[in-house]
Amino acid sequence: MGFADLLDEVGGFGRYQWIHVTLISLPGLLMASQNLLNNFVSGVPTHYCSIPANHSLNNLSHLHQVTCQYVNPQWQLLVANSSTNVSHLETEDCIDGWTFEQSDFLWRLVCSLRPLKQMIQTIYMGGVLTGAIVYGSLSDRFGRRSVLIWSYLQLAVLGCSSALSPTYSVYCIFRFLSGMAVSGVIINGVSLKVEWIPTKTRTVVGTLSSFFFTFGQMVLAGLAYWLRDWRKLQMVVSAPLFLFFTYSWWYSESARWLVLNRRSEDALKSLHRVARINGKSEMIEKITVEVLHSHMNKEIESAHSTFTVFDLLRTPGMRRISICLMAVWFSTSFAYYGLAMDLQKFGVSIYLMQIIFGAVDIPAKLFALGILSYLGRRVSQAVCLFFSATIIFANIFVPTDMQTLRTTLACLGKAFTSASFTTVYLYTGELYPTVIRQTGMGFVSTMARIGSMAAPAVLILDEVLPALPSLVYGGSAVLAGCFACFLPETLNVPLPDTVEDPPSLAVFMCISMSTQCVCLKRNRMKFTLFLFLPSYFKFHCLQIHIQN
């Protein structure tokens, strides 16, 4: 008997859950806009060096394509129709300034100022990282609902303030604080949804609600194309948060969290409210404080202790889960934002590329839904990471002039990283126990924020070796896929409520002296390594079986 049984008694996934999940998922439309806004705010505008007033425009019209001034004179460029390769020549800021075509971008970050473009995104992701740490701990102390409501208000106010920023520095400060709020919205929204959903519907609900983020990417492209003004765009993607703040007072606090924090009367009121909305009014009289305690006796006993982030590493089971999830979160975010945050490199309209990158998430998440339901969380997570790494590596060998193929592979890679994101959000909520779930979500998602901060910086490495960023992104995905294989399976497993009962994992080893190994037990992940030993002059087979 546990809290999951009480949820079934008050209607399972009924009318309340439908409304609850929909209202919490709606802000996801704008979370995508906040995360990817930098593509449309601080891109590199079309520009070229201004021609001095004492020079003839007709004689130098063929030099209009010079975007930065060369350090050393390049007399060969004075020849009309010159075909000289100038990509490797050292440049500096234009002495006479630049001429810009009409630009929709916020700051004219060209030549020596170009690195500041990625700096905005790094600062924003630093705010998301800080928010994951701060709001993850605060929600375990003050509740998911309270912190979520505050995050809506903070993002609404600071997002609109960003649109009024007079300088680059002020804008960066507002974006940092907005990033903190985004993190509070995401991690508390996920937990508040998971803790009110029955076990058997978590996969479908978790995957389908992630489509709001997918559609949000396409909405961002449409708004940016329509508005063509960074201040208006910033305001439009932030102002609706005031609406979300207004209706968020309707949410019910997690009954699990209330019971574990000695607020059983409030938890009982929430359960009665859910039963009434779900049309199970007859259960109101049957569910009492005593019944509630009898279902959650084990969890209540464990809740007498105070938990901190160190408890995530205290027991062997929790330590393994936390370390593996840190690797998965980091690599997923690292590869995702590495592909999604530099749309200009594809040589296609950034508005079109944003729509395409958003659209590929739809089949990717449907794919994730299928394998999550039939193969389980662990296999799904590993498959998504390995596939994304394979595609990223494949793109290294495609010539730069085959832009269509490179763009197609980049879209496929982004699709699998998106599916990995969908999986890890659901997976993490199922792996951590209720008493420390938000602290755990905040802790491991900090690695995602570090990954998203590092991703723009890695893009700079293409000046050293064009293939280097792809090697780094793909290599991290392979490593994370290996870590994912050592996570326990949670498909159709009730949510753990205590630190002592996380999903278990057993590892078995067998060594066969033959060239073939056979595993007769089901529900196991099997890894086979063929080791050539010269002393025997034949292959030896080592199998590692991982089973719940």
UniProtKB/TrEMBL annotation:
Transmembrane segments: 119-138, 147-167, 173-192, 204-227, 233-252, 321-339, 351-375, 382-398
Bilayer topology term: Multi-pass membrane protein
Main subcellular localisation: membrane
InterPro entries documented for this protein: MFS_dom, MFS_sugar_transport-like, MFS_trans_sf
Segments forming domain Major facilitator superfamily (MFS) profile: 76-492
Pfam families linked: Sugar_tr
Gene Ontology molecular function, alphabetical: transmembrane transporter activity
Subcellular location: Basal cell membrane
The protein's name in its UniProt record: Solute carrier family 22 member 6
Organism (species): Oreochromis niloticus
